[in-house]
Specification:
101 residues, 9 strands, 66% strand, elongated
Length: 101
């Protein structure tokens, strides 16, 4: 059994006890959250639209962290113009507790 959920403008395929990293959510570590369900698949049976309106996917927040640093380096050839910049994208790690159709 798996579900497609929507959070942070992105869709994720989740199963029970799976851990995913999503866009940063304003919740505390240890809190329980409900995710918006777009589709649920049980065996060969697929539920979408109004059939999943009452479905619930509960998740527990494991961590609030930042991803690995990426380096951005821009330069203009033959002009002695160089610019270095770094970025660490914040994320929330969540663990899927239950999938209820």
């Amino acid at each position: 059994m798996y579900a497609i959920v929507l959070t942070g403008g992105k869709q994720y395929k989740v199963e029970r006890n799976s851990i995913i990293k999503v866009e940063k959510l304003n919740v505390n570590v240890g809190d329980s959250i409900d995710l918006e369900v777009l589709m649920i698949s049980e065996g060969g049976n697929v539920l979408i639209g109004a059939d999943v309106a009452k479905s619930v996917v509960k998740a527990e927040v494991l961590a609030q962290d930042k991803a690995r640093k990426i380096n951005i380096f821009k330069y203009k050839a033959k002009k002695n113009v160089r610019k270095r910049q770094g970025h660490r994208q914040p994320f929330t790690a969540i663990k899927i507790i239950t999938l209820e159709a």
